[in-house]
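Translate structure to sequence.
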């Protein structure tokens, strides 16, 4: 029984690991912090997995556990030290005709998103993942109306940050 539970967990984790990487990218700014957060989220998912009832999709549950873990650790880290900027670690393809416009726009967006509070970051993340408001509300534990209102306010806040 335990072996089967472990095998199912590993399969689902491998299938949906990009969710964790995206959460890590949102809440960290260097390679080591990314790996540490990935490991911590994985541990928390494993601890919580036996209680997963399947009331929601595994990916929705995974978003919720991942975001809650990241937010908790992010808040703790704010009381300690700052880490190296992620841009120094980012990989760039070398090519004569390489256009980094999109990459630069993403950097600007991430820089703006990093100025938001923890809950706002989570909402933006789920929104950018093309989750509908119903799924966002389930993941965040808020009403669908509240998710829409918060998202509209966040969009305005980002506009102000990006276009001062």
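Result:
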């Amino acid at each position: 029984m335990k072996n089967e539970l472990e095998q199912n967990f590993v399969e689902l984790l491998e299938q949906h690991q990009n969710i964790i990487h995206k959460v890590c990218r949102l809440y960290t700014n260097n390679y080591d912090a990314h790996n540490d957060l990935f490991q911590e989220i994985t541990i928390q998912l494993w601890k919580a997995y036996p209680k997963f009832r399947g009331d929601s999709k595994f990916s929705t549950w995974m978003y919720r556990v991942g975001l809650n873990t990241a937010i908790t650790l992010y808040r703790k880290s704010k009381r300690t030290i700052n880490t190296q900027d992620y841009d120094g670690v980012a990989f760039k393809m070398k090519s004569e005709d390489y256009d980094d416009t999109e990459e630069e726009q993403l950097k600007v967006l991430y820089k703006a998103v990093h100025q938001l509070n923890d809950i706002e970051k989570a909402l933006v993340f789920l929104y950018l993942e093309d989750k509908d408001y119903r799924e966002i509300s389930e993941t965040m534990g808020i009403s669908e109306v509240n998710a829409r209102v918060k998202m509209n306010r966040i969009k305005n806040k980002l506009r102000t940050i990006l276009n001062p």
